Amino acid sequence: MLIEIQCDRFKSGPVTFDEGLNVIIGDSVATNSIGKSTLLMVVDFVFGGDSFISNNGGAIEQLGDHHYFFKFKFGGVDYAFKRGTHSPDLIYTCTESYEETKPISIEEFRSFLKLSYKLENIDLSFRSTVSLFSRIWGKDNIDVKRPLHSFKSQSAETCIENTLKIFEKYQPIKSLESSLKDKNSEKSAIAGAFKKNVIPKINKTKYKANLNKINDIRDEIEDIKENLAKYAIGIREIANREVLDLKEKKDKLLVQQSAITGRLNRVKGNINKNKYIKSKHFEGLKKVFPESDLPRLAEIEEFHSEISKIMKSELSASEKLLAEELSIISDEIISIDKQISAVLKDVENPNIIVDRVYDLSKDRKRSANPILSSIQLIAIVCVSTFQGRSDSTSST
Question: 311 versus 228: which is more confidently predicted?
């Protein structure tokens, strides 16, 4: 327990503490601002707190930087320390007469107090434990409507958790909280995988299309396996199938290419036509219509000019995007043409059978992965959040 605090800024001798209740009272006429709260802040300071430095700057400003010497008694042994306001993160161990021996960090000092007060079984830091009991005017924890808060912005969840830890009732749910964090982490990882397209995100229509594609691929593989001898003689049939697939892909790309080319030409045409009339050309209009308000017309045309600039900027951006998209499609068409040429070139090569089966297997795997990923996600989400990690892994 704390038994003594000394300071050369005290008006009287050291402040001593006895076992049981210790009370700080004012004078007989209940005068305010005589140092009661400041002394309590000093007590908090010698218990490793920082509120005296952050919230009582006025006291330090008036008194200047100074040191506090204090003693604790644990197991019949006195432990003396020194802590100053100019370097509060450094504590000095002292002899019984307060002669400095060696410095220790504030973390080491707090660990010493936690161990000495036999709080090592409480899953809280020493200051978190003390803050629940240290309610002093000037600290951020004196709101009577928040009796469990160590500071105003502390979450209700943390307050309840700290209270359970104080009464050593938290251990039974600690493993559940760890499991909850793991599940939330897994959920975030899966969501991130979908967002980055590491796991393809599919809808019901795509799911059914993938199933149909898998069935078609499986049928073709089985057909090749059952009729390998026939295909070894008539390899051209396999080549024709692959060329047909590539041709269908190319035809789709050509339709897209044509549509984008049309849109691009229209955008370019709009850019070239996006012109306005200059004010000097209004002079001829004055001869035909003398009553014309040329300044007003010029003002309107200036407005048209600004609109034209905005439209031109938007059209230019659209032109750039369409050109990039057209370039990508053109590259894909060139790639397909090369694949068709390669197939036709090797039409008499028996290796085409092996290559075709290999490509079909890869295609089937790509189609199946999104389906499996969605099933796995549903399984993970359905597993109880509070189930143990090993159980949830086996269920998944």
Answer: 311
Which residues lie below 8 Å from residue 55, measured CB to CB, with a gap of 6+? 41, 138, 139
* 134-167 pLDDT tens trace: 777 767 777 777 777 777 778 888 888 888 888 8
Strand order in the sheet with 77-84: 15-16, 2-6, 67-74, 77-84, 90-94, 100-105
Give the span between the Cα atoms of 38 and 68, in whole angstroms.
Answer: 13
CB neighbour burial string for 1-31, b if at least 16 within 10 angstroms, e if fewer: ebbbbbeeeeeeeebeeeeeeeeeeeeeeee
Residue 64, pLDDT score:
85
- pLDDT number for residue 178: 78
Closest by Cα among 249, 255, 258 to 336: 249
Candidates 127, 20, 125, 17; CA nearest to 72 is: 17
Q: Is the pLDDT of residue 283 over 80?
A: no
Segment holding 72, helix H or strand E = strand 67-74
108 by Cβ neighbours in 10 Å (0-12 / 13-18 / 19+) ranks as exposed
Q: Which parts of the chain fold into alpha helices (H)?
A: 36-46, 51-55, 57-63, 106-116, 126-131, 156-166, 171-195, 204-226, 228-233, 235-273, 283-288, 294-345, 351-382, 389-395
As a whole number of angstroms, the distance between CA 114 and CA 120 comes to 6
The answer to whether 82 touches 94, Cβ cutoff 8 Å, is yes
Which carries the bigger pLDDT value, residue 87 or residue 362? 87
Contacts of 235 (CB under 8 A, 6+ apart): 347, 348, 349, 350, 352, 353
CB atoms within 10 A of CB 262: 11
Residue showing tokens 């600290």: 139
Query: Cα(256)–Cα(271) distance, rounded to whole angstroms?
Result: 23
User: Residue for token digits 């629940």?
Assistant: 132
Q: Is the pLDDT of residue 107 over 90?
A: yes
Q: Quote the pLDDT of residue 241.
A: 72
Share of the chain above pLDDT 90, in %: 18
Separation between Cα atoms, residue 218 and residue 197, nearest integer Å = 26
Taking the CA atoms of residue 213, residue 215, residue 216 and residue 221 in that order, the dihedral angle to the nearest 10 degrees is 120
Paired with 180 in beta bridges are none
Encoded amino acid at 288, one letter: V
pLDDT value of residue 34: 66
